[in-house]
Design goal:
The complex is a heterodimer of chains A (about 280) and B (about 80). Chain A starts with a helix and ends in a 10-residue tail after the last helix. Chain A is built from ten helices and no strands. Chain A has two domains: about 55 residues, no CATH class; about 220 residues, no CATH class. Chain B is mostly helical and about 80 residues long. Helix content of chain B is about 85%, strand content about 0%. Chain B is built from two helices and no strands. The relative contact order of chain B is 0.17. Classes of the chains: A mainly alpha (about 280), B mainly alpha (about 80). Chains A and B meet through helix 9 and helix 10 of A and helix 2 of B.
């Protein structure tokens, strides 16, 4: 029992030391998570090396498993007078549905599963990093670019399906109707295409920058707290990072909301809009 | 002047200018939202949601500058 405790303490202090060294080299400190702690001690085994290479995927899988279990257990026996878990899930689904259909209209009901899952998944990813020993997968550019590419491809596919290929190209060229708008097509088309390509870039960079910034902020204040008590020569520190954890809760929620809202608006732009509402 | 010196001088200035611009824009957005809330307190919920979303969009441009600083600061050492 004490041997396990000793091992755990050794693991944690080694991890803290390696994080400090990495911070000194790269300038952007990062709190250790359980995979990087395992990697410091047992990095030569194949399993831990594999986990360390794919650590964002491992954390995403943890979230997916938790969300999957909650979804399964809350919808196993659907009763008309729901119990607590089913009631909570119904509240979440209904508020997301109202939010998305409020923007997209009644035909947006088809997109509620995708956009609602996006919101819940990004929210859980942002919050996972605040648990000690875990890391937000969305603090890596790979995860956010993957999400943004999914949204981008689905939006373009929806545009082609709703407007038809000719209508889609027409929409990209800025709806040329009379001579002047036809003459402006060589200007409008590249601008629209660049705008379409800029959308997933901005989505991914916004989420990545915010979550990484929050993580670095918390790590810097943790190291400040440890330095404040460094005269004790013990691995303890003042909990100076607690106000910033609350700030990270707030910005995590806001970023998930903004990602979902912007994806919803990109879908709205791809629906056929009536001529009188089309603004130049 | 090596490129490392140039980067080390320019990056904090760039980030400071981005932060200044974002503070200016956010101040205008929040002040407009608060004024609207004062005029019509019943709509305060909707106005608040719109303000939060607008603030996140304005903040995103500063975050782009921050990400650029992260990426380039690795080239200094």
């Amino acid at each position: 029992m004490t041997c396990a405790l000793n091992n755990l303490l050794l693991l944690i202090t080694t991890g803290a030391e390696e994080t400090g060294k990495k911070a000194a080299e790269q300038g952007a400190p990062e709190l250790p998570n359980f995979i990087s702690l395992l990697y410091e001690r047992y990095g030569r085994t194949a399993l831990v090396h594999f986990l360390h290479t794919w650590q964002n995927v491992v954390f995403s899988l943890i979230i997916i498993l938790i969300l999957g279990f909650v979804a399964y257990f809350s919808s196993r026996r659907k009763t008309l007078l729901p119990g607590k878990l089913q009631n909570l899930m119904e509240m979440a689904v209904e508020s997301l549905d109202n939010f998305i259909c409020g923007i997209l209209g009644p035909r947006g009901r088809k997109f509620t599963p995708f956009l609602g899952t996006l919101f819940i998944y990004i929210l859980c990813m942002n919050f996972l990093g605040l648990i000690p020993g875990m890391k937000s997968p969305s603090s890596s550019i790979n995860t956010t670019v993957a999400l943004a590419i999914c949204v981008f491809l689905y939006v373009q596919f929806t545009g082609i399906r709703n407007l038809g290929i000719v209508g889609y190209l027409d929409h990209l060229a800025g709806n040329p109707r009379d001579f002047i708008t036809w003459a402006l097509v060589p200007i409008n088309l590249p601008i629209h295409i660049i705008g379409e390509l800029a959308k997933p870039m901005s989505l991914s960079l916004r989420l990545f920058g915010n979550i990484t910034g929050e993580d670095i902020l918390i790590a810097v204040f943790v190291s400040l707290g440890v330095m404040a008590l460094s005269f004790l020569n013990l691995p303890v520190g003042l909990p100076l990072q607690v106000p910033f954890i609350f700030l990270a809760l707030l910005t995590g929620t806001i970023q998930a909301l903004v990602f979902t809202l912007l994806s919803t608006i990109y879908f709205l732009l791809m629906f056929p809009h009536e001529e009188e509402k089309h603004s130049t | 002047m090596t490129y490392q010196t140039a980067l080390a001088l320019a990056l904090p200035f760039g980030l400071g200018i981005a932060a200044f611009g974002s503070a200016f824009g956010l101040g205008r957005a929040v002040s407009a939202a608060l004024e609207a809330m004062g005029r019509q307190p019943e709509a305060a919920g909707k106005i608040q949601v719109g303000m939060i979303i607008g603030c996140a969009l304005i903040e995103a441009l500063t975050i782009y500058a921050l990400v650029t600083v992260f990426v380039l600061s690795g080239k200094i050492g």
